[in-house]
Design brief:
Layout lengths: L1 E3 L5 E3 L4 H23 L2 H5 L18 E6 L2 E7 L37 H15 L2
Antiparallel strand pairs: 1-2, 3-4
Amino acid sequence: MSTTLPNGLIAIDEGNTAWYSDITANWNLLDQKVGTVNALKPVATSGDYNDLTNKPTIPAVNDGTLTIAVNGTAAGAFSANQAGNTTVNITVPTRTSQLTNDSDFITSDAVPRFATDGEIDALATDFNTLWGA
């Protein structure tokens, strides 16, 4: 048997053992949960970083700069505190004609001409004719 109390609360007769044991078990479970919540560290319920203990030391980031150079000439730079990305395009020659010939390598215009087999035969004939062979 139960009795309705003010504010909508219900008092349950302890003689009703099925209801009473369920309520007691649930009360004990709730009491354990409340005890667990009370045992939590403040940060668990506040979410505030300042409530943490043993906080790691976060090193300061200096404004270092990475400079990318090509043969000693700066091609671009990236700052450690920069918010966006940086693209540095380094042009690399893809054809030999883009290179400077500063060592006087022979080019196709300067390749020495060699005699053909027919020209050598003609010279041999001329030699034999001149020298009487």
